[in-house]
Design brief:
With 231 residues, this protein is mainly α. It has ten helices and no strands. The chain is 68% helix and 0% strand. The protein starts with 30 loop residues before the first helix and ends in a 7-residue tail after the last helix.
Length: 231
Amino acid sequence: MADHSADPIADPIAARGPGPEPDEDPGADGTRERLIRAAIEIVATEGVAALTTVNVCRRVGIAQSSYYTHFASRDELLQALGERSAIASRRTTRAARAQFGEHRDRVHLRDTIRAPLELIRSYPEIFRLGRQARHEPPSTALGAHARAMAAANRAELADDLMDLAGQHDPGLRRRYEMVADCMDAMVTTLGEGHIEGRYPDLEEVIDLLAIYAAGSPRLVEWLSWRPPTEA
């Protein structure tokens, strides 16, 4: 059985960061937290299909009736798992970006790119779950929740990019959000290619993303340029 107790997604303390904190059971036994940890372990080692209420309750050692005290459905547990994963990813990537902002060197730029890719590599099934949830209709609880998590990530990345550029013009924020979406799409697509074996060399993936992340003169110009009517 895999032990993820020291990893950022599985550890509720390490997973805390910008944005909402993971919900924790205020009770002495922390049953809600144990259910989330069990769900992470099941999905990470056996896949999403193995995440049933029966399976998770058996792993935690509680009756199904106790499960429904904490989660109304399997989808609610999946939402909690997805939120834990998103918060962990945002915490680690923002910390790496802060270090890059302080040092502004190639090593820390690569560390910034490496952070989300390492989480994708460590938790491929949870990553796939998040991707699947994004394609759920927005009218569903999972679809709405996945979009909310994606929006929070986009906003934080756009904030960090503007800070790194020393740009504080709110009129240009839309462009930084577009860049944030592009960077997220590249990391997600290449991360998926890595875990599926198409791009087995993670350092090669980081090389390519670092080239894009460094930007080009045209991109820098585009991020700060406004048509005369907007000036």
